[in-house]
Recover the amino acids of this structure.
């Protein structure tokens, strides 16, 4: 929680440092292919499947507020031991975040994330507070850019007997914005790794995402 | 016999006093004796004055005067050959000297002219040192002869290699030979060093005058030239090409992001295992970086080039003005010429 407080302090500093600007609204739609590897220590499964998502954010005076949602359908991709007969499951993740743009190329956000793996009979639910930092590096100013984003859970919980361990991940990709357009396209790869508490095990999520967005001033 | 006795008596009686007197005193006494028609005493005194050696020797002008009176005295003593010999020595000493017609009667001056015409003498006079602006001013050498004489005047390196022929023709009495300070018709200036000014009868004859030479120490003094105006720089000039930094920045951004895509499983995954699909994303990101690199290659900025054109043209005009001024100054280089003594040169075959 101390880290969360530090993140909030940074965000506040960013808001103070920013000049008065008009609010900006950003919308994004994602289509992705996802891989989830689960290793409980007893069984190891790999699932994959497509998904869709979206995010909306508003920026006011350097402060950011936003929420996101993604949903995917995962099927067996192969496995060993008891995982061979694992059923299809759905992944649903919701995110709320707030933060600020400390520098033109640095964005810090934090907020709760709820992630659920849903089968016909059970739901594995993760809830965690996450801090994120994103660095933007233009390749061709106004047209092409790259970015790199990392995150880490400040507090986490899961409805499994083992409990939740640390959760961290990262994402990198390229953004293309056509000249004199407010829309943009993005191709990215993300990796998210959640450790289970106790003797071990983890759940790793990878995704290749093709996104489209628009910035509305 | 009696004259010899008189001379002997004069010398013997005057000898102790003569030794204590200067050559100039002896000359003046000899002249007074001549004027009193005491020719024997005059001859003795004048010869004694001429016989003195440095440091009490007569100066050349006094020596010429002494020889004039001596020749006249000898002529009046009916010793024509001796008189002719004295005049010959006088001509060789100073070819331009003439006995004063107000002092000496025509029979003396006539004999002098007869001897002068018969005596072939060649000499040259040059200034001891001078500064010369080549092509505008001239180094002058006065060539003196006692009769019309074909003369070749050349400038040569100190090893004898000819540089320029300054005169090749007859010299009636005396003439000024000029050198404009160049070594070629194109106006090339001489390099620093020693040169020889050779003055020789042409053709050389056994009984003719000996060739002469003067060593010339020539030093070129380069003129001060103006430095070029500094070229215009930015600012105030506007940049005329885009910078290469954005290209490298784009390449770095693409490469680092692509590398991050590949490295994400290792950085954040527990086992480091991941699908190979991420390589497609990494390749796309890297290609984007390459696109940015090539898109940002330095290019001319035409608008800035046009805006800078007047400043560049002004600088070019100033450069041309400095070039023109420097060309003028280089043309005004000065030669410092120091002449050595006139010496007799070897006869050339």
């Amino acid at each position: 929680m101390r880290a969360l407080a530090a993140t909030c302090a940074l965000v506040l500093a960013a808001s103070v440092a920013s000049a008065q600007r008009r609010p900006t609204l950003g919308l994004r739609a994602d289509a992705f292919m996802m891989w989830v590897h689960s290793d409980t220590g007893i069984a190891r499964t790999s699932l994959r499947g497509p998904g869709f998502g979206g995010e909306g954010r508003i920026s006011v005076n350097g402060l950011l507020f936003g929420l996101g949602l993604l949903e995917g359908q995962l099927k067996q991709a192969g496995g060993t031991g008891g995982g061979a007969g694992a059923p299809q499951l759905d992944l649903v993740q919701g995110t709320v975040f707030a933060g600020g743009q400390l520098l033109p190329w640095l964005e810090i956000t934090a907020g709760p994330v709820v992630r659920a793996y849903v089968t016909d009979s059970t739901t594995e639910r993760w809830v965690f507070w996450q801090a994120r930092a994103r660095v933007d590096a233009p390749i061709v100013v106004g047209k092409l850019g790259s970015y790199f984003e990392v995150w880490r859970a400040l507090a986490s919980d899961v409805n499994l007997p083992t409990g939740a361990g640390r959760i961290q991940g990262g994402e990198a990709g390229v953004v293309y914005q056509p000249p004199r357009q407010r829309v943009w396209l993005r191709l990215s790869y993300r990796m998210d790794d959640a450790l289970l508490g106790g003797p071990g095990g983890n759940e790793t999520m990878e995704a290749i995402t093709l996104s489209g967005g628009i910035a509305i001033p | 016999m009696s004259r010899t006795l008189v001379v002997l008596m004069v010398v013997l009686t005057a000898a102790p006093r003569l030794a204590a007197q200067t050559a100039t005193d002896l000359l003046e006494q000899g002249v007074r004796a001549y004027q009193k028609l005491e020719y024997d005493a005059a001859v003795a005194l004048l010869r004694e004055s001429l016989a003195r050696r440095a440091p009490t020797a007569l100066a050349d002008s006094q020596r010429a005067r002494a020889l004039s009176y001596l020749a006249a005295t000898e002529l009046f003593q009916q010793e024509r050959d001796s008189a002719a010999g004295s005049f010959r020595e006088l001509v060789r000493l100073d070819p331009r000297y003439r006995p004063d017609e107000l002092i000496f009667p025509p029979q003396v001056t006539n004999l002098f002219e007869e001897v002068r015409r018969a005596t072939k003498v060649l000499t040259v006079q040059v200034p001891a040192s001078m500064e010369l602006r080549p092509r505008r001013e001239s180094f002058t050498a006065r060539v003196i002869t006692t009769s019309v004489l074909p003369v070749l005047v050349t400038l040569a390196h100190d090893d004898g290699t000819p540089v320029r022929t300054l005169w090749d023709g007859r010299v009636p009495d005396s003439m000024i030979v000029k050198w404009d300070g160049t070594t070629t018709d194109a106006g090339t200036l001489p390099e620093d060093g020693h040169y020889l000014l050779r003055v020789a009868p042409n053709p050389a004859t056994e009984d003719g005058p000996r060739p002469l030479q003067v060593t010339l120490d020539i030093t070129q003094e380069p003129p001060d030239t103006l430095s070029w105006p500094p070229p215009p720089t930015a600012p105030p000039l506007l940049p005329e090409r885009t910078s290469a930094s954005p290209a490298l920045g784009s390449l770095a951004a693409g490469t680092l992001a692509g590398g991050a895509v590949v490295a994400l499983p290792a950085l954040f995954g527990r086992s480091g295992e991941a699908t190979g699909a991420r390589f497609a994303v990494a390749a796309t990101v890297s290609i984007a970086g390459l696109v940015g690199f090539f898109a940002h290659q330095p290019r001319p900025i035409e608008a800035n080039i046009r805006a800078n054109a007047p400043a560049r043209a002004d600088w070019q005009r100033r450069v041309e003005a400095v070039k023109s001024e420097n060309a003028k100054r280089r043309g005004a280089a000065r030669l410092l010429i120091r002449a050595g003594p006139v010496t007799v040169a070897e006869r050339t075959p």
